[in-house]
Task: inverse folding
């Protein structure tokens, strides 16, 4: 297998304000969100980061997308470092999270062109790819409708399309089906499998076991910012169902702390 | 893949956002100029109407004991009819009716003799002339001014010892200022401040929404995950904001230029509204406006990027606006422009001083060049600062 992503000792801490300290019920003014996290992903596979809320999944993906900087460690995506070559990394990845919004004022047509230009996509390719992607997700009928007037599902499909305007080899999805209706969720998961068959690498975060079981080739279990277990589903599950194995791991980690 | 400049892509997107929003376009570009034109024109017309109202209305001047010495002065006043008669208290009371075009004057009996024998050294009160009028009636008020003026002139004549600026011929005039300088002096105190205010209002209308608004809506993060360099984003934002603010400023400026003659009633004030400025003056003025709007958009963009949301941006920009407005007021309190070049390194103050010198026909190249160069450098620093802010996760993603 060709390794396309290598994460090495990635660490990220956040300072807590007094207000956050109260909410978190802690005296510490620093929280370690990601703690020396390491894993690899291969070309043409779907790698899932599984963990409970607050485990550090989103922070990890935000560091991979260069939205935030690691305190230490590094991640190499297709030969480019998130620390030293963030612009090159951003050119190689498609990143989608519910945190990223599209301007309500513009139409899908305009936004596709705009983001294609920012990704330096050739003019000739833009039009062809737009037609193909819009048709694939049923956006073509709404191409000239302002985002503000689109349904929630259509907005989410458009966000997915916009994140992929440049046909990246590495796709990073934070909770890809979160907040989606069942139909849109199915469209998205089907499309992820389609992308894998095209040789794309997909890194996704989720807390939904069934999604990992259905989609992922390899999985990493993150708890409290640390990678507890990583490998193929068979390797991680050790003969159990993913859900049972996860709670076993969780109990071991949390029980050890107690 | 192709190579291209993302700054231009950002500028096009900001312009598309602005020009595509008809309401924003109207309120930011069309409305300021239109409102200024309408308001100033109406104010000018109102003042003109007040000044000329009653100018041709006939006013009856009733005079008791009109002295022989005064009669020739009052008999030929314009739009008046002089009636010699005793004045009753009832007539004085009736004058409270503001629709009555009348003035009542009462001289003491034997006025000329009393005046001839009066000596200030005696300590006695001087002979008193009572002139009753109604200041709410323009015609009555106008004629009162004429009567009072002619009596004052007569009084001066009685004790005439010397003259000041006596016009011995029609060509004689003692104020040696030419019309250009008079107009320049007025404009240099008013227009720079107006330009600064108008440019600022243009920036204020869009800057908070452009960066703080994008943070608030979550659209800035979508931009930040593209391979675009942060300095391209910073420059694109500042240049597009400057362009839009400039449009707003131009609109307001056109409104001022079109309405100014009506506002200051140039024809009645005797000022010729020919703007006799050289092409160099216009070029420096244009460059100054451009440099000003650039530094203004830069500073407001920095504050907008620091703010958590649009509301917070508005609050943060207000103190800065007050400082800029204060700079705009400085020509009112100073005579001439500063000589030292160091003054032209202070942002906004330098723009105001250069604009003041242009309007006062006193433009000098070196201060103008120092102002332009320093503002371009400050804009460069602001682009660098904004780039750093776009790179700062604490600033971009803090809630």
Result:
């Amino acid at each position: 297998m060709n390794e396309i992503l290598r994460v090495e000792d990635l660490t990220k801490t956040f300072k807590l304000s007094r207000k956050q300290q109260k909410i978190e019920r802690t005296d510490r003014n620093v929280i370690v969100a990601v703690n020396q996290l390491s894993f690899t992903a291969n070309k043409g596979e779907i790698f899932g980061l599984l963990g409970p809320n607050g485990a550090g999944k989103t922070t990890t993906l935000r560091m991979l997308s260069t939205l935030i900087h690691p305190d230490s460690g590094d991640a190499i995506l297709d030969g480019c470092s998130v620390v030293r070559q963030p612009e090159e990394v951003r050119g190689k990845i498609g990143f989608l999270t519910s945190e990223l919004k599209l301007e309500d004022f513009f139409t899908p047509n305009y936004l596709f062109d705009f983001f294609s230009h920012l990704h330096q996509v050739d003019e000739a390719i833009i039009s062809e790819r737009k037609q193909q992607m819009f048709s694939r997700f049923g956006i073509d009928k709404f191409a000239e409708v302002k985002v503000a007037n689109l349904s929630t599902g259509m907005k989410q499909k458009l966000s997915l399309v916009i994140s992929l305007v440049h046909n990246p080899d590495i796709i990073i999805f934070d909770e890809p089906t979160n907040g989606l209706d069942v139909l849109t969720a199915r469209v998205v998961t089907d499309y992820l499998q389609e992308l894998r068959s095209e040789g794309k690498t997909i890194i996704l975060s989720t807390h939904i076991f069934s999604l990992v079981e259905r989609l992922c080739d390899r999985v990493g279990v993150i708890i409290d910012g640390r990678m507890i277990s990583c490998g193929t589903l068979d390797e991680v599950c050790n003969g159990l169902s993913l859900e049972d194995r996860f709670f076993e791991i969780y109990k071991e980690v949390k029980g050890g702390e107690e | 893949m192709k190579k291209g400049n993302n700054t231009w892509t950002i500028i096009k997107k900001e312009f598309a956002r602005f020009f595509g929003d008809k309401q924003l376009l109207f309120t930011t570009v069309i409305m300021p100029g239109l409102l200024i034109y309408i308001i100033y024109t109406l104010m000018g017309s109102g003042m003109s109407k007040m000044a000329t109202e009653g100018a041709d209305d006939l006013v009856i001047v009733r005079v008791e004991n009109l002295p022989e010495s005064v009669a020739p002065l009052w008999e030929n006043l314009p739009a008046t009819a002089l009636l010699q008669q005793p004045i009753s208290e009832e007539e004085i009371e009736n004058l409270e009716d503001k629709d009555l075009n009348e003035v009542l004057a009462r001289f003491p009996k034997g006025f000329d003799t009393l005046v001839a024998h009066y000596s200030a050294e005696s300590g006695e009160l001087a002979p008193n002339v009572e002139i009753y009028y109604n200041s709410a009636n323009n015609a009555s008020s106008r004629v009162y001014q004429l009567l009072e003026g002619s009596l004052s002139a007569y009084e001066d004549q009685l004790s005439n010892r010397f003259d000041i600026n006596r016009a011995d011929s029609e060509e004689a005039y003692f104020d040696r200022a030419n019309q250009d300088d008079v107009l320049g002096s007025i404009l240099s105190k008013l227009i720079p401040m107006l330009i600064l205010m108008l440019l600022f209002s243009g920036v204020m209308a869009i800057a908070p929404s452009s960066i703080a608004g994008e943070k608030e809506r979550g659209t800035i993060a979508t931009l930040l995950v593209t391979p675009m360099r942060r300095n391209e984003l910073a420059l694109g934002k500042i240049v597009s904001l400057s362009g839009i603010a400039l449009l707003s400023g131009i609109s307001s400026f056109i409104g001022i230029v079109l309405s100014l003659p009506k506002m200051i009633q140039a024809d009645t004030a005797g000022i010729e509204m020919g703007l006799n400025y050289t092409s160099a003056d216009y070029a420096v003025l244009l460059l100054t406006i451009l440099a000003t709007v650039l530094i203004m958009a830069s500073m407001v963009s920095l504050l907008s990027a620091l703010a958590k949301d649009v509301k917070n941006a508005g609050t943060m920009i207000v103190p800065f606006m007050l400082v800029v407005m204060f700079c705009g007021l400085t020509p009112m309190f100073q005579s001439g422009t500063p000589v030292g070049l160091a003054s032209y390194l202070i942002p906004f103050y330098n723009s105001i001083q250069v604009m003041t010198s242009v309007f006062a026909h006193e433009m000098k190249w070196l201060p103008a060049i120092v102002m332009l160069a320093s503002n371009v450098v400050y804009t460069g620093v602001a682009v660098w600062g904004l780039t750093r802010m776009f790179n700062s996760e604490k600033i971009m993603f803090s809630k």
Observations:
- DSSP finds 16 helices and four strands in chain B.
- The interface with chain A takes residues 1-4, 6, 9, 13, 16-17, 20-21, 214, 217-219, 221-229, 393, 397 of chain B (CB under 8 Å).
- The longest strand of chain B covers residues 59-64.
- The beta strands of chain B are 59-64, 80-84, 102-106, 130-132.
